[in-house]
């Protein structure tokens, strides 16, 4: 393959990636929290970028609550333990509520909904819902990592002296473990972001800490949305 063909292929993947509304939202999220980190919560250009990007992102999330609502009422995967099913449904319910209330917040911030005090109250309730969904995700990822770890140990015993990295099933389980670990890091840091936005611990979780954690989780989300072919090329 020539350099031009390789460039075309890479650009085609980039176009495919940027065509996703979710990918554009996460890129804007990185800009939002990067600006929050730079501003340190103080008035200025960076804070203006933070606020304007936050409002713009809400447009990407219009009617997105339907996705989690659909998952909530759909039957769970077969073989899933009851505690994981309950955690998963709780996560879907909380995230769907957050996304629905976020639309009301958007209407309030743009002037469509005139009650400012109620808009701020709804904003806080929505953030608590998001924090709750992130906590549920963290518990789910911990449980799934424990299950995958048990499966890996079982496979290692079965393979004995054979090269475990040559076994496709072992490699798939290892990849699942890595993906789950990354999701665990993301959801744990998102809890910190929610605490910062709600100002539950203003002395410890400052705007700068909130911005740093939000920026990192945004980059993780951007990576998770990459096509599988692009991920395989990442060193």
Please, could you describe this protein's structure?
With 235 residues, the chain is mainly alpha-helical. Helix 5 packs antiparallel against helix 6. The radius of gyration is 20 Å and the shape is globular. Keywords: Coiled coil, Membrane, Peroxisome, Peroxisome biogenesis. Belongs to the peroxin-11 family. This is Peroxisomal membrane protein 11D-like. Involved in peroxisomal proliferation.
Count of individual beta strands: 0
Unreliable residue stretches:
none
Largest sheet: none
Radius of gyration: 20 Å
Average residue-wise pLDDT: 90
Roughly what fraction of the amino acids lie in strands? under 5%
Shape: globular
Number of contiguous helices: 9
How far apart are the termini?
21 Å
Secondary-structure element pattern, one letter each: HHHHHHHHH
> Which percent bin holds the helix content?
over 70%
Which class best fits the helix and strand makeup?
Answer: mainly alpha
Family: Belongs to the peroxin-11 family.
Membrane topology: Multi-pass membrane protein
Coiled coil: 145-172
InterPro entries: PEX11 (IPR008733)
Summary tags:
identical protein binding, 9 helices, peroxisome biogenesis, PEX11, single chain, 235 residues, 0% strand, Peroxisomal membrane protein 11D-like
Provide a brief overview of the structure.
By secondary structure, the protein is mainly alpha-helical. 80% of the residues lie in helices and 0% in strands.
Please render the helix and strand layout as text.
Elements: H1 3-18, H2 21-39, H3 45-60, H4 65-73, H5 82-109, H6 116-159, H7 168-198, H8 207-224, H9 228-233
């Amino acid at each position: 393959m020539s350099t031009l063909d390789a460039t075309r292929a890479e650009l085609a993947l980039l176009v495919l990636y940027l065509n996703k509304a979710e990918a554009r939202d996460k890129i804007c999220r990185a800009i939002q929290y990067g600006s929050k980190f730079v501003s340190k919560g103080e008035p200025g250009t960076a804070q203006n970028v933070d606020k304007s990007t936050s409002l713009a992102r809400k447009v990407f999330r219009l009617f997105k609550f339907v996705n989690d609502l659909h998952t909530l009422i759909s039957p769970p995967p077969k073989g899933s333990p009851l505690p994981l099913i309950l955690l998963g449904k709780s996560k879907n319910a909380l995230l769907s509520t957050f996304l629905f209330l976020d639309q009301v917040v958007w209407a309030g911030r743009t002037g469509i909904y005139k009650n400012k005090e109620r808009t701020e109250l709804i904003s806080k309730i929505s953030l608590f819902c998001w924090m709750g969904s992130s906590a549920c995700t963290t518990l789910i990822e911990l449980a799934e990592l424990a299950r995958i770890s048990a499966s890996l140990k079982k496979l290692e015993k079965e393979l004995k002296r054979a090269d475990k990295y040559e076994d496709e099933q072992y490699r798939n389980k290892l990849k699942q473990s890595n993906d789950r670990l990354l999701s665990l890091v993301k959801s744990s840091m998102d809890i910190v972001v929610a605490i910062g936005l709600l100002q539950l611990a203003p002395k410890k979780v400052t705007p700068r800490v909130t911005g740093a954690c939000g920026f990192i989780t945004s980059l993780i989300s951007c990576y998770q949305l990459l096509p599988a072919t692009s991920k395989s090329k990442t060193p």
